[in-house]
Amino acid sequence: MKNKSYAGMCLALTFFAACSLVNAPASVKGGGEGGEGGTGAAGGGPPSPCGNGVYQTGEECDDGNDVETDGCLSTCKKPKCGDGFVWEGVEGCDDGNMANDDGCTNDCKLSTCGDGTIQDGEDCDDGNADDTDNCTSSCKVASCGDGVVHAGIEACDDGNADDTDACLQGCVAAACGDGFVQVNVEECDDQNMSDTDGCVAGCKNAICGDGYVRAGVEECDDGNLVGGDGCGPGCTKDNLLPQCMNYAVLSEADRNVNFNDGDGGVEICDSQVIGEGWYRFMGAAGTQMPTFPPPDYACGTDAPGWVQGAYPQAQGEVVNATVCFNWSGNSCEWSSAIQIAHCGGHYVFYLPLTPVCHLRYCGTN
Question: For the whole model, what pTM was predicted?
C-alpha cells in the first residue's frame, strides 16, 4: 500500500514538470542552437537578450528593433562614424573605413569640392572658393585659359586662344608692339617701335601726313597735306623759294586791322621796331596784309599800311607791290615799295623801313 502511494506521487511530479516546460516563455526554452530567442551557450545556456527592448548589462543600447540607421544598431551598440551604417540625420555617409579620399571623409561627410580634401576627380582642393589662387573653385589647378585670372601670375584670362582680342595666349594683355593686331583697336602691329616702316606709333598704318617719314617711300612728312611749307601733299619736298624758308614772324594782336584805340593813344612806328627784311604774318596779327585802307589809328599806329596791288597767284611766284599808308582822308599819304612771295600755304612780304613815324604794316585774316 505504501509503495503504490509513492509511485503515484512520482507520476504527478513528472507530469507537472512536463507541463511547466511546455508553457514556459520562448526566451528560456533553449535548444541546441539557442532556440528562437537567439544563440545560446554551448550545451543550451541562456540566449542573448539584445533586441528585447530592455537595456541589459553588456549592451550600449536596446531599442527593440533591427533598424541600422537610427540611434541603436541591431547589435545593441550605439552608432558611430566608421561602423558602416549611415546614421540618419547625423551622418552624410559611412563607408566603414578610414580612407579620407574615397568620397566619404573620416568624419562621415560626403566629399565635396572645397572641403579641403582632394578626392577622385579633383586636381586640388584648398578649402576655399577663391578663383584667383592656384586652385579654382571647381577644384582644378589654375592654368592660363581657364577663364579666371590667377592673381600675380596672369595679366588676363579670357578663356580662349584668340590673339586678336584684348588678352593673348599666355594670358598677356594685348599692347601695341606685341606683334598681334588687336581687332578694332590696332590697324597694324609689326612688333617694333620703328616709325619709318609701314606701321608707325600707335599701331597705325603709315600714310602721308602722319608726321613720320616712311623710308624709301616718302621724301618728307611734316604732318599735314599743305603745300608750300617745304613738304608737299604727296610727301615730296617742295621747291620753295629761299625767302619761304627764312623769314621773321609778325604776330602782335595790336597789329591786326581790328585793333583800333580810336584816339591815337597807341602809336607804334615800324621803322623803330622792325628792320628791313622778309616777314610772315601769323597768329593774332592775321595771315597777310589787307587790300583795303584801314581807318586812322588802326593797327596800333596813326597811319595804317595796306597792300595796293595783286597778290601772286602761283606757288613760287614773287610780285612787286606797294604798301600805302592811310591818313586823314588820303588812303596813300605815304607809300613803300614791297615784294610778296607765294609760298604755297602762305605769303611772305619783303618790307622796308616805313618812310616816317607813326606808320605800321597791318595784318588781317
Answer: 0.45
